[in-house]
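Bumping with the actual sequence this time:
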Amino acid sequence: MREVNVDRMLRRMPWGMFREWVAYRQLEPYGDDREDWRHAALSALLANLQRDPKSRPQPYAPQDFLLRFTQHAQRRRQSADEQWKNWLTILSDHKALLAQAKRKRQRVK
């Protein structure tokens, strides 16, 4: 595998080409930030498919799943009991959705 020397590449790259790459990134974003948004959108979609509108009327948004890397953000850690309770809620919502889908299939038959 060939090793890439970014500093050497940047020294050899003409200024116009560098500006073209900067403009391209603005038109077609790529990289970690874009991937974070892509995965957050997918996570929101999956969460909304499993969401019980009665227990959570507001749909999830990608921002709910976007990773945030800040030094000053203090997030309260959930206790093991809180985590377990959250998992049970997710599982019960999933079980209810499966039962609902089964009832719909039976009505169609």
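The tokens above came from a reply further down the thread. Residues 77-109 form one domain.
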